């Protein structure tokens, strides 16, 4: 095979490129020029990306207006007897599309949070034995006293629902987002 | 150093600069998303402005590339 290349080179009168394959002689690659063009194309592409990123950043800034504000609606959740010590109760607040969880802790304190995990929006549940709120999807764990993430992938705390007991009934009085 | 080689070096430098600013923009976007989800709205507008400034820097560099090309083409033809 090599001898054929050498023969063809000799026929073509090329003495310096004795071991250059035929395909490289037929289609010579100008490396410098090749890089020159691709870099330019890359700059154009990155500038387009830069424009899109700036646009996305403005979309983020504008989207803050669409984020739900704190709610202050008062909603009766049910009789206090439904929520035993070291127990949990599910409810919806402030709209029927917003699942929440109320917990009476081992110390007897009444707390409530949005049930939507801040990682990937699975519903968190109360783990009685550990006295923690646990997301079963990716093993995210939140403290029951503040709703802060203590283990797993979540990095943001759960939205807190203001809750209070009036007489024999429990009321949700606001949402702290 | 030939003009072509000078151009190659120049475009390498511009490419690195543009790539760096795009990475900074990516970081700004992820920071903004995180701030939005945390309901910390104060930093959203400054991040968007900073991202826009970086885009204009990139646009300016791209404009320089086009002008450089035009000039090289004019010199070659002339």
User: For the report, how would you describe the main beta sheet of chain A?
Assistant: 6 strands, antiparallel
CATH class annotation of the largest domain in chain A = Mainly Beta
Structural class based on helices, strands and sheet pairing of chain B: mainly alpha
Spans of chain B of at least 5 consecutive residues whose pLDDT stays below 50 are none
Low-confidence stretches of chain A: none
Tally of individual helices of chain A = 3
Count of spatially separate domains of chain B: 1
CATH architecture of the largest domain in chain A: 3-layer Sandwich
Total discrete domains of chain A? 2
Provide a descriptive summary of the structure in words:
- The complex is a heterodimer of chains A (177) and B (78).
- Chain A has 177 residues and is an alpha+beta fold.
- Chain A has 3 helices and 10 strands; from the N terminus they run H-H-H-E-E-E-E-E-E-E-E-E-E.
- Chain A has 2 domains: 2-65, no CATH class; 75-176, 3-layer Sandwich (Rieske Iron-sulfur Protein).
- Chain A has helices spanning 2-12, 22-26, 31-63, and strands spanning 75-79, 87-92, 99-104, 110-114, 125-127, 132-135, 140-143, 149-151, 160-166, 169-176.
- Chain A is elongated and about 95 Å long.
- Chain A has a 6-stranded antiparallel beta sheet, with no helix packed on it. In chain A, strands 5-6-7-8 form a 4-stranded antiparallel beta sheet, with no helix packed on it.
- With 78 residues, chain B is mostly helical.
- Chain B has one domain (3-77).
- In chain B, 88% of the residues lie in helices and 0% in strands.
- Chain B has 2 helices and no strands.
- Chain B is elongated, with a radius of gyration of 18 Å.
- The two termini of chain B are 21 Å apart.
- The interface between A and B is medium-sized, with 27 and 37 residues.
């Amino acid at each position: 095979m090599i001898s054929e290349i050498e023969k063809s080179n000799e026929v073509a009168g090329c003495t310096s490129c004795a071991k250059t394959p035929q395909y490289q002689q037929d289609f010579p690659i100008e490396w410098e020029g090749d890089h020159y063009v691709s870099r330019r194309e890359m700059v154009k592409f990155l500038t387009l990306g830069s424009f899109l990123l700036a646009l996305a950043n403005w979309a983020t800034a504008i989207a803050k207006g669409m984020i739900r504000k704190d709610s202050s609606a008062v909603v009766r959740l049910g009789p206090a007897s439904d929520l035993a010590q070291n127990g949990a109760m599910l409810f919806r607040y402030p709209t029927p599309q917003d699942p929440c969880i109320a917990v009476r802790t081992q110390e007897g304190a009444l707390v409530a949070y949005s049930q939507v995990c801040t990682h990937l929006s699975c519903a968190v549940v109360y783990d009685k034995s550990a006295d923690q709120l646990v997301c079963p999807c990716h093993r995210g764990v939140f403290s029951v006293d503040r709703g802060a993430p203590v283990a797993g992938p979540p990095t943001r705390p759960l939205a807190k629902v203001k809750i209070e007991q009036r007489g024999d009934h429990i009321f949700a009085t606001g949402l702290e987002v | 150093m030939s003009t072509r080689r000078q151009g190659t070096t120049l475009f390498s430098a511009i490419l690195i600069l543009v790539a760096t600013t795009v990475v900074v923009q990516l970081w700004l976007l992820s920071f903004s998303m995180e701030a939005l989800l945390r309901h910390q709205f104060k930093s959203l507008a400054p991040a968007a402005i900073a991202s826009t400034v970086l885009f204009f820097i990139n646009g300016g560099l791209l404009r320089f590339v086009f002008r450089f090309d035009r000039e090289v083409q004019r010199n070659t033809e002339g």
